[in-house]
Design the sequence.
């Protein structure tokens, strides 16, 4: 699936991933390939991504994630890699 992490001032990440774990406002959740469409609020915490290149993590300060047809878009308030 394709993941984009965007802040108001820059694109932090763009690429193919096999899974992503988000710090949801109601608790942590994971998105895998062919996930059902959804929109969720994010709280401050660690966003973990697994791709062919390995694992990466980003500290987000909150935001929103949208999952639609294997495209995952994160609109984050701010991100520390």
Sequence:
């Amino acid at each position: 699936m394709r993941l984009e992490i965007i802040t108001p001032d820059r694109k932090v990440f763009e690429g193919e991933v096999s899974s992503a774990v988000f710090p949801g406002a109601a608790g942590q959740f994971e998105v895998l390939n062919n996930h059902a469409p959804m929109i969720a609020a994010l709280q401050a915490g660690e966003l973990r991504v697994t791709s062919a290149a390995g694992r990466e993590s980003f500290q987000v300060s909150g935001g929103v994630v949208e999952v639609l047809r294997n495209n995952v878009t994160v609109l984050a308030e701010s991100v520390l890699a």
Remarks:
- The first strand starts at residue 2 and ends at 6.
- The beta strands are 2-6, 11-16, 19-24, 27-32, 38-42, 45-51, 54-60, 63-68, 71-76, 79-80.
- The chain has a mean pLDDT of 96.
- The chain has one domain: 2-80.
